[in-house]
Fold this protein.
Amino acid sequence: MRRRTLSLEVQSADRLNSEFLAAALWRRAASLVDDPTTTLFFGRTDHDDGERWYVGRRHVADPHGDPVVIDWRADVSRAFYRASRTERFGVVRRRRFGIEAGRITAYEDEHLTDPGEREQRSEILAREIERPRVGPMRDIVATIQPEQDEIVRADVGTTVCVQGAPGTGKTAVGLHRAAWLLYAYREKLGRAGVLVVGPNASFLDHVSAVLPSLGEVEVRHTTVEAMTAVHGAVRATDEVAVATLKGDARMAEVVRRAVWSHVATPTEALVLPRGSRRWRVPAYEAAEIVTELTGRGVRYAAARDMLPQRLSHALLLQFEEAGDSPDDRVQDAVARSREVKRWVDAVWPALTPPQVLHRLLSDAAFLAACADGVLDAGEQALLLHPKPARTPGASRWSLQDAVLLDEIADVLRRTPSLGHVVLDEAQDNSPMQLRAVGRRCSTGSATVLGDIAQGTTPWATPSWDVSLTHLGRTDAVLEILDRGFRVPAAVIEYAARLLPFMAPGMSAPTSVRDDPGSLVVTHVPAARLWPATVTAVRHALGAEGSVGVIVPDAGVARCAKTLAGAGIEHHVLGDEALPEPVDLDAPVGPRDDDTAAGDGAPPPPPRVSVVPATTAKGLEYDRVVVVEPTEIAAAEPDERTGLRRLYVVLTRAVSGLEIVHAEPLPEPLRAGA
């Protein structure tokens, strides 16, 4: 199928059509890249009517166009994931195939109509879930569970919020839902676009291969920082109290007032010389036009664009009363005249987001007027820059400032909306960040993923109801995933000791894995901390799979130097470049550095990753070595956030966890140890 696609020639007399067809063929060829590490299919269903379907990652047809393998997203594939003895979906037998290095090595059959067959857990399923992993996150099409499949196949008009404890597969579910939506609603979402928003560049690097492996090469991945950086580069950092205030939902009203306060009440008439006469729009009539436009509910810049035409229309009425017969060309000429432009600039000036925010954060009187009744005097003082830049262009914006700039940009002109947005680790987004994401799917839908217990920012949400309100999605359906497939029982039970202290009422996931995993806690003298870390890493390397060494952020350089000195190849997370700012209007297609099918895959990364504790969220490793848990927790601004950070760190392991510490462990982890 791929060779056939690559053999097609683009023939068109029109250059634009040629480029469009070439891009379409590139996307088609890229979606047909074969993965040598797996097979074309992983399952089969035999039905009451004699039909037999092989289920795989994508649709495969023979030279006549007849299906050989059906896409896992096709409606007929639903039976493979959902069929049970109580609801068979017409399935008589379900077969799963075991795959090793691209070869089928085993298979299992379930006879759903045989009452004498004992129901048991699939060994193939268990092996696939627990299979060692190195490199980016894998797709889970062969292991999607019924409760996950229900979320994946939720209708395009439904916003779904998934509360998922560590290891329940919420990230994978969100990505697979994006792939399913693009399959089921290709025409709609192909035009409107799909966006994945993650917490940091390391996370995006980890998940970036999932959708391409499913044939979806057009989905953009970004962070909130990169998404809002189109309005101003982030070059500064706010203190916690300031950052929290800038992320408060009340700031939306403050910046709205800041923008609209620039509209002045006309005090002078508009005078237009034309021929031998001077035509006037009296100040009172112009004021009525301005008032009507400000009350229409449209964006600032859109209303400003209407003002010259409205003024021109008022003048044309006078021309007609004087016996003239002006047409649309005359009205446009008047609207573009120097006199009208000058009058509009004086009453309704053109604004840019940096211009508005710079004034708001550097002019105490202006901030007080905009924040009256919204922020108290102390909060206003927090917002003001102690040494404001002389011009908006010289300002050093923080991440929170970039989000405010994005809010201002939306007050000026409506932000383009996509068809669907997947927002992961949503519990850590501030209200203003949630508003920024919500604007990108205002006419579409969203998949919101997270875990309240893993909220590690000072502004972490107290509940999904609060987050969904700020996102503008109060009609979202809340789904809960509590069966842990990734984290073994020994690890999750240990980490769950923290829950009563940092997330009362939140229950730990139930691990459904047969392998309980391994847990080792090693206490050493301070002088032996790093040598003991090297020993733990060497021990982890003795087994298959990836190794994550999670350390306090302040210890990253020391850890990397120690591992290098011991001759252990590794790479350091957090060095990844942020994705480029997302232009929602830019098409997605082949770039100069793309090949038609992604040939020449990069070499696999080192098995060992040094991971700053603040970057660990959303990542997974077969074996994890955690260094100094107490220091990791103490680096956060308060005890609750520190314990939540530690909970995230302890739940990154798929097979085994070793803790190396010199300082005493936090009290919750000592209890019952």
Observations:
- Residues 587-599 have pLDDT under 50 and may be disordered.
- The first helix runs from residue 2 to 7.
- The first strand starts at residue 43 and ends at 47.
